[in-house]
Amino acid sequence: xxxxxxxxxxxxxxxxxxxxxxxxxxxxxxxxxxxxxxxxxxxxxxxxxxxxxxxxxxxxxxxxxxxxxxxxxxxxxxxxxxxxxxxxxxxxxxxxxxxxxxxxxxxxxxxxxxxxxxxx
Length: 120
Prior knowledge:
mainly beta; 5-stranded mixed beta sheet; 57% strand; elongated
């Protein structure tokens, strides 16, 4: 089973991917919290298990809508992120690892969250 490069949508079938891997939150006030979500799609012909969410920063929380993802199915990943107090563009990421019925762990596929703390 293949994984789309950097979480991008694959060219063919047989892949697990994030259709929209870049999430732009725009400007945020200092210590503000924003929430959002993205989807993981199973384009393969077998059920996969979403195993783990790997976050790039302690400022991010994330939760899976479903752990078992049937062939052709999709699962929502909800997240929230705190902007902190440093001005300037930031990029954080959430990786999703998954496994097949054979227990082989694959991934992660990655969603990037872009935002800019402005202090205003």
